[in-house]
């Protein structure tokens, strides 16, 4: 049995798939580099965020910096339990929602 036509199809298919993968990798690297350059320029000339004043974090809005919230499983609670804040996970600060933690607007 002659296997050269099958080998030709496999080699050609492998070359096409490899070419697509290589092209995809090169384009993704180029896009990431372009984004990094653009972000660096934007950071250099942008004013600081007015909400967090460039600190990138702000006091948690849900627990108001207490790290815990009062929670009860019932609508009209008889007993409330302190639980760790789900927004800041007990860290008392959260990422600025205005600048998304970048520090500039």
UniProtKB/TrEMBL annotation:
SUPFAM superfamilies assigned to the protein according to its UniProt record, in alphabetical order: DnaJ/Hsp40 cysteine-rich domain
Name of the protein in its database record: Uncharacterized protein
Domain of life: Eukaryota
InterPro entries hit by this protein: HSP_DnaJ_Cys-rich_dom_sf
Lineage of the organism: Eukaryota, Viridiplantae, Streptophyta, Embryophyta, Tracheophyta
């Amino acid at each position: 049995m002659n296997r050269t036509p099958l080998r030709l199809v496999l080699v050609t298919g492998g070359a096409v798939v490899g070419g697509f993968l290589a092209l995809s990798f090169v384009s993704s690297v180029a896009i990431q580099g372009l984004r990094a350059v653009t972000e660096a320029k934007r950071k250099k000339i942008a004013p600081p965020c007015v909400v967090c004043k460039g600190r990138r974090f702000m006091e948690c809005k849900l627990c108001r910096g207490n790290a815990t919230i009062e929670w009860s499983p019932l609508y009209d609670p008889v007993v409330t339990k302190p639980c760790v804040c789900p927004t800041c996970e007990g860290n008392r600060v959260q990422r600025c929602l205005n600048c998304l933690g970048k520090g500039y607007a």
